[in-house]
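Troubleshooting: if your tokenizer reports a length mismatch, compare against these two reference records.
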Amino acid sequence: MRKKWYIIQTYSGLENSIKEALEAKINSFGVQHLFGKILVPEEVKLDRGSSPAERHIVFNNAKILVNPNQDVKKGDPIIEDPEIHAKSDGIIKEIKNYRIIFIETIDRKFTKTYYVPESAKVETGIRPGARIRQGMPLTKHGENFCELDGRIVFTEKMKRIVVERDNGDEDVYMVYPKTYDPKVIRKGTRLKRGDLISEKRTIFSKIDGRVEVSEFTGRKELKIYKITKTRLYPGYIFIEMIMNDETWNIVKS
């Protein structure tokens, strides 16, 4: 027999709870072959106006853990930065506090990333969303000036770790402060090629919403917009099944 669609009337606001209870009951009785889809039709809209989207810049070495148009919950993992390992044998020469400042032009065609020492005192106006012009200072001290007109996308505190190789060359690693062990990675420590410098970092969603991913040269941008859901048929559930005494007793109870 072919499955047909039926409509169940229930209390408005309890549609999803009853849907989940039905699915659990169907699985417990082992009659999945008699049922098809169970739907609570909804209209979903992205909230692009009343609240700003959660925004992340994703560079090529990072991995996006979600798909475009996927709905996520607050606390879901969305981006993963990889582990960092020593490229060569060497000794840690210095570890300093740095700040990454990422700037893009208003048309989003060009970008510039600055790595400035915290000791240079980042200007108070350097914050995400702020407009900036060519020639404006990024720090109170030192020769750190913006080279393009645009907008600050994000700033991030980092640790700059310099490893001096045995041949005198230097390898520089920019790591997130919470991803390395300062008891192990400290000035004077000798590293071997492949030694772990920093753990992977996972970024979690701060809100419930829907994922949108845009691609640009050298990077991707992940946004999460809050969504609003409206029941198209309040108080009704649509169920696909083969109607007989067994399925009817499961549904009506």
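Reference record two:
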Amino acid sequence: MKTIDLRSDTITRPSQAMRQAMMIAEVGDDVFGDDPTVNELERYVAELFEREASLFMPSGTMANQVCLKVHSSPGWELLCDRDCHVVNYEAAGPAVHSSLLVNLLSTDRGMVTAEMIQQNIRPINLHCPLTKMVTLENSHNRHGGTILPQDEILRVREVCDEHGLILHLDGARIWNVHVATGLSLPELTKPFDSISVCLSKGLGAPVGSMILGSAEFIDRCRRERKLFGGGMRQAGIIAAAGLYALKNNLERLTEDHANARNLAEGLNQFQMLSVDLSRVETNIVLADISGPETVESVLGKMKDVGVLAVPFGPKRIRMVTHLDVTRSDCNEALDQIREVFN
């Protein structure tokens, strides 16, 4: 029985062409700055986003947490959406690494608005923490791959400038936003002081993320990366995969988006499942379960017929399309799920 794995876009495996690029990559010691492939990747990504510099990181979690650490001082307050990755999936990193107080805001579709920020900035008072940072996530995982409105992001930037706040972007899936909206990567990310982007989700690299910012900021991040244990030696082998992914797998993300829409529309035909199609803007599908069935029961039955998904709440499952899943696979998954529920 074929398994159709829709758990995440992180489960992709390197293609033969990507493996070949990794095999022939020129390498050196990156801690000494001597790995030519890592250096090429960092130059390429910085130019892609029109930033002064970028830094290759082992993971998205480390990328986000190093950014927060470099930007902040202990006791500062961070404003963010209550469902954001930085808080929910990074092992309490803001508290553990940076001693940050996190103010979790309830949002619509993941957008922390300029008005919310205005309302949540603490008074300058020795009794209060200093509200100094905001982080946004675009696209937003727990809201179903939703895209944050660019005009509101610009208003957030204005408020941050007015109050001296630092604005960080968790742009793990900013590539999906780019192909879905047609906005350039520099335009999407210009409002932010720092950016993290992932190479190992939709782009299909086996490992790695990038940090972008000013040259001075990246120098400081390089030191923190070492402190976090993220200094790597002959890292060109994996940097080569990132370069290949960026040059070959970016524009094809439109296929993932079309497959997600097809999957969502098909799931909506089942009485037991419902999908808010207005939220299917990229490659993530959230399906709510009606009736007495538990999410564990539904996922177990799906697994029995070869379709894998993940729980995303007591009555919600998540499916994610990616380069290892074709339109035919999505249609087959729908057929198998139909058997389960009929």
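Descriptive notes for reference record two:
- The two ends are 20 Å apart (CA to CA).
- The CA atoms of residues 178 and 234 lie 31 Å apart.
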